[in-house]
Amino acid sequence: MAGIDGIQNRIHPGDPLDKDIYGLPPQEAAKVPSVPPTLDQALQNLTQKHDFLLKGEVFSKDFIENWISYKTEKEVIPMQMRPTPYEFHMYYDL
């Protein structure tokens, strides 16, 4: 649906990037568009901008809101409440 929305609204996907993004200086890397790095941020973006999913009645507003709520309650919050393996290693693993 996002691709169709981009085509219909003639959204330019951006110029190709022919550089090693891992070797860029921070100032230049900040200008490179990226997807949300976490599920939490992706859900926040979806909350703010999901009109393209409502076109053609593919999804309903209730479905999107319930899906965001479910993912937040069942995945985001439980992950935030527990230490990651690295945090466990740093603070608890003797």
Describe this structure in words.
There is one protein chain. With 94 residues, the protein is mostly helical. The chain has a domain at 1-9 and 38-93. 55% of the residues lie in helices and 0% in strands. It contains six helices and no strands. The chain has helices spanning 2-8, 26-29, 39-48, 51-54, 61-80, 85-91. It is flat, with a radius of gyration of 18 Å. The protein starts with a helix and ends with a helix. The mean pLDDT is 91.
Could you provide a short overview of the structure?
The chain is an all-alpha fold and 94 residues long. The chain has helices spanning 2-8, 26-29, 39-48, 51-54, 61-80, 85-91. Helix 3 (39-48) packs antiparallel against helix 5.
